[in-house]
Amino acid sequence: MSQLKKIKEMIFPRDVLVGHNASEQIAELCDRIVHGNALIVEDKITRKILGNKVTRLLRKGGYTVKQIDISSATLKEVKKVESFSRKNKINFLLSVGGGTVIDVTKMAAYNLSKPFISVPTAASHDGIASPGASLKNKKGSASIPAVAPLAVVADTSVIVKAPYRMLASGCADVISNLSALKDWQLAHRLKNEEYSSYAAALSETAAKTIIENADYIKPNEEESAWIGAKTMIVSGVAMSVAGNSRPTSGAEHMFSHMLDKIAPGKAMHGEQCGVGAIMMMYLHGEDWRLIRDTLKKIGAPTNAKELGIPKKKIIEALMHAQEIRPERYTILGEKGLTKEAAIKVAKTTEVI
After folding, report:
1. Residue 212: exposed, middle, or buried by beta-carbon count in 10 A (0-12, 13-18, 19+)?
2. Which CATH class for the 164-348 domain?
3. Which CATH class is domain 15-159?
4. Which of 86, 140, 181, 316 shows a CA-CA span of 20 to 30 A to 29?
5. What predicted TM-score, i.e. pTM, was given to this entire model?
């Protein structure tokens, strides 16, 4: 009998700190897992919110620390961070900010083969702990394989002060795991795609935690930031287990990325994924109303009007969503929805 030779690498955060004033422990955490010169990647706003504080704490702990501001999630900004890191002989990076800052840091760290620590100032999507980055280009946005953070420090006393819309969007992103999992299971059955029950269980647990605690997720409640941040980190770990974004990204994410392309700047990523999940769960014959009602409870959009996107753009995105990742099989099939089918699902689910 031949021996099966199979190797799979799974890279997880080694240390996760979530809670009130968690950033106060940043120097002690770094002492455990990294060494050398540090670079804080931030933007002009997050520098004031937390970046300067993290810099002071690390310098007090004996680290040489540099700071750099970035302005957008683009390859140009990634290259800027890489160049600055090489010039200043940086040993590890810390992303202090929201999704844009984290994605740029993640990609730069991957290209530099340097560790990075994720220090989110808002919980707006599951990129907090995931191994993938979303970068903007002329065609919209694209998800690119990168590296998971070596550690995550989620200070809920900071996250709760961010605009509540960001947290609601992040929670909607996690809820959309349920439709992504249905797509993954479908691809496993019909295309024999590799499927990880462990990754799926983590993803489902994160989504159900949001659903079960929806009544407690509201503005100005630090408990809300705690619930949201934890589930987003678990979603990120699910992707690390799978080795790809399958546990958390299906047709609803393609729908969101297509909206970024044809109706840019209208709504947040997680908001679009939440609305997409309503429609994709309907197509799967699942309980789409549960998704819709949960989104309503947490104050996330459930229709085109609340997204601020014209109805015709919703239909267009539904018809062309599969073009975002044609190699990834989902409920949309290989050719996507006809205009009639797109109108029917959007109207039935009251998205338009």
Report:
1. exposed
2. mainly alpha
3. alpha beta
4. 86
5. 0.92
